[in-house]
């Protein structure tokens, strides 16, 4: 098994929890549902969620959080719809697409992550002749889920280089922890990875970055957030507000790079030395409809959405 898979296999199969309460508050002032299940992924984007669990931020709000590790946005949507998750981390493209297709009546309850240089990248084998995205036009690129943020970032960056990619012909689904294996075996010609996978693939000698998707035209792009169904948000407003307060506290602390670096080895299984070398993006504290409209605009540009989506009604902003 490659080094990357060894480092991260345990994280993708596991789950964690914080706190020890089962039911809602008996006095009506606490959360309606005190024990919630939250979907997550072993990526740098979710460091604040892990911090909130380990530092007792959820417990301070009367919440017990149990996490379930997911493979991507599509699984997040299906599990939210089935009621297997109360709240889930996921990319905005998957959430907005599912909402537009009426697969789920989604509500975004917290922001999670925005890109920065080398947080999202396209990598090829170290000895590959590929030099640019244009060279990948007739190749297969591994993404964790088709028609999500991964493919969209590649399409936008490729367009700037005069390259065009087809969702069905050019993209193949590969779980993040298996991207090094896929690249090494040649089952794909490139992968669109995120941290900590970008750094791990580079350091293992398997691959090299051919396109940094954290730079223009997709610099500072809103990547992911935490979502619930509209029914859960409406029926459990105090639970959602408690989750938001705990996450806002953690997102603020994540502005200090050292807090994220400290948290990463606990849930990604990478070493402290490796964590210190990762490229990190931004952890927005508040939901901003203007920022999230960038996602909708890019989805419209590449035909992911046939009609405009009004972002504002999808955001749950309950205040302090």
Automatic annotation (TrEMBL):
Subcellular location: Periplasm
UniProt domain Solute-binding protein family 3/N-terminal: residue ranges: 35-263
GO terms assigned for molecular function: ATP binding
GO cellular component: periplasmic space
Residue ranges, annotated region (Disordered): 13-34
Keywords: ATP-binding, Nucleotide-binding, Signal
Keyword Nucleotide-binding recorded: yes
Keyword Repeat: no
SMART domains cross-referenced by the UniProt entry: PBPb (SM00062)
Family per similarity comment: Belongs to the bacterial solute-binding protein SsuA/TauA family.
Protein name in UniProt: Putative Nitrate transport ATP-binding protein NrtC
Organism: Streptomyces aurantiacus JA 4570
């Amino acid at each position: 098994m490659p080094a990357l898979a060894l480092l991260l296999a345990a994280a993708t199969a596991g789950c964690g929890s914080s706190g020890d309460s089962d039911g809602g508050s008996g006095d009506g002032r606490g959360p309606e549902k005190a024990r919630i299940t939250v979907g997550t992924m072993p990526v740098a984007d979710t460091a604040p969620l892990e911090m909130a669990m380990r530092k007792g931020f959820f417990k301070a709000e009367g919440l017990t959080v149990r996490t379930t590790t997911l493979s991507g946005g599509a699984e997040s949507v299906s599990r939210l719809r089935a009621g297997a998750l109360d709240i889930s981390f996921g990319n905005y493209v998957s959430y907005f697409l599912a909402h537009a297709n009426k697969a789920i009546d989604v509500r975004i309850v917290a922001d999670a992550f925005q890109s920065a240089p080398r947080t999202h990248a396209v990598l090829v084998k170290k000895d590959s002749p590929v030099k640019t995205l244009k060279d990948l036009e007739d190749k297969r690129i591994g993404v964790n889920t088709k028609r999500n943020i991964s493919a969209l970032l590649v399409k936008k960056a490729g367009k700037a280089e005069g390259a065009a990619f087809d969702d069905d012909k050019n993209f193949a689904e590969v779980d993040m922890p298996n991207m090094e294996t896929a690249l090494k075996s040649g089952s794909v010609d490139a992968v669109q990875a995120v941290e900590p996978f970008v750094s791990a693939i580079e350091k293992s000698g398997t691959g090299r970055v051919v396109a940094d998707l954290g730079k223009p035209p997709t610099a500072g792009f809103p990547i992911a957030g935490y979502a619930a169904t509209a029914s859960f948000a409406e029926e459990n407003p105090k639970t959602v507000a408690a989750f938001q307060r705990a996450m806002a506290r953690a997102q603020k602390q994540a502005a200090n790079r050292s807090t994220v670096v400290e948290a990463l080895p606990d849930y990604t299984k990478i070493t402290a030395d490796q964590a210190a070398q990762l490229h990190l993006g931004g952890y927005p504290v508040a939901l901003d409809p203007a920022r999230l409209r960038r996602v909708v605009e890019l989805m419209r540009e590449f035909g992911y959405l046939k009609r405009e989506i009004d972002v504002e009604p999808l955001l749950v902003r309950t205040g302090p």
